[in-house]
Amino acid sequence: MMPRPQFLDRRRVIGAVMIVLALGAGTGLLAPRLFAPSRAEDADNADRAASPKPPRVTMKNGFAAVTLSAAEQQASGIETARAAQAPAQESVVGYGAVLDSTPLSELSNRYLAAKSEVATATAKLAVARGAFERAKILYKDRQNMSAAQLEAAQGSFEVDRAMLDAAQSRLRGMAASARQAWGGVLGAALTERTVLITRLIEREDYLVRVTLPPGAAGATPPETASVRLDGGRELSLAYLSPAPAIDPRLQGIGYLYRASADSALLPGMNLEVLLAVPKSGQRVVVPEAAVVWLEGKAWIYLRTGPITFVRRDIVPDRTAPDGGYLVSGLPPNPEIVVRGAQMLLSEEFRAQVPIED
Length: 357
Known about the structure:
This protein has helices spanning 6-27, 31-35, 39-50, 70-76, 102-140, 147-192, 195-201, 341-351; strands at 57-60, 63-67, 79-82, 84-85, 89-99, 205-211, 224-228, 234-242, 254-260, 270-278, 283-286, 292-294, 297-303, 308-314, 318-319, 325-328, 335-339. The chain is α+β, with helices and mostly antiparallel strands. A 6-stranded antiparallel beta barrel has the order 5-6-9-8-7-10.
């Protein structure tokens, strides 16, 4: 018998190997040996499956919150600081005008004239009352007093009493006009002729009307006000009362102050008055570097946790004396991002862009 060719043996060997590979792949016995992953890859896959990475941006109580690890914060230069409390008073610039005391002097003279009329009418009524009383006694005792004379005495008494009533009415009208034109404090000073009204009429003091910008009035009137004159000299103003009416040109709340006439002020002068207005509500000072702008609005980032920062909108309508803004409506003692706020804003919007983009 002739020997079999060698290529037949090779075919059998190759076929046996293929059968073994197929059986190993089907049973899972050979594949792990050929494609077994490393231990490091197993550990990494296990960590990812156990603790998936949280999203960078979430919504917290209606505000966008950015999450950064401590290492990422350090690498990005994120710095935070507690916001300083706003001062108990804030400075507001008001518009002042030195008033002419001539109308006040004229009103005072008219009031004095009405007061004199009341005094005269009172004296005449007292005389007429005495004459009428004597006429009644004489007529009752049938002495030298006729009915006509009694009626004449009574008529004079009634006329003088009406004159007194009219004089008193004019005097009350003058007092009301003084209160309406100059306010309760100056109106009372005018009717009582106090030292205050005398110094204003004699131009030893000047009256300064100060109007605050719209919306800047506090709960109580500003007791402290000052004016910086030419040469740098500062003049203090003494508060008197609220202004009785609003200046139609400025549409702000007004107050009346008194200034010494020795201060180089003259009637008709316009002044910039610095007023200390008590703050309304709880405010904090936000540094200008902490503010980012988006769609025409101002925003800041607050640290709400070790790795969490929340974006909050603010209204920077009041500037702080030493820079920054006076802001209300923030949580008590907030921790503000003072460096890296722009980076947080960029990170917030980058996290919202799909990976395919």
